[in-house]
Amino acid sequence: MTRRSGCRLRVDIWDYSEDHAFAEYSEFSIGDEASLYHLYIDGYSGTAGDSMTYHNNVPFSTIDRDNDSHARRCTIDTHGPSGGWWFKNCYRARLNAEWGRSSANWHNNVWYGWKGSSTALKATLMKIRCD
Q1: Which segments constitute the Fibrinogen C-terminal domain (predicted)?
Q2: Range of 72's domain?
Q3: Phi and psi (nearest 5°) for 34?
Q4: CB 113 within 8 A of CB 9
Q5: DSSP-derived secondary structure letter, 112
Q6: Residue 1 resides in a domain
Q7: How many domains does the chain have?
Q8: Which regions of the chain does DSSP assign to beta strands (E)?
């Protein structure tokens, strides 16, 4: 779906105090299997701060397929169990962690550009629109 030109991404995030912020990217696509589902993202605007551009041109990693550039496996070793994500070294945004709020910051869904790494996100939405 995102191989077409003109795709955008909007991310809405909420913390546990019900504060809300958003990030929009005017350019968004995900590569095919041969590219390991590389992320292409650019053109940030919004109120959340830009936490996704850090992940630009990074392949998707899962628990059973480590494609990140970190010496350890970002999906498991450094931050506890996590869903798949475009880990670089390791992340500035992570929206596929275990749901809930943990005193161990690395177990939370986070968006560094908004309130830093110690603020757990209560809810997140990722929305794609292609013209």
Answers
A1: 1-131
A2: 7-130
A3: -60, -30
A4: no
A5: H
A6: no
A7: 1
A8: 7-15, 20-30, 39-46, 93-94, 110-111, 121-130
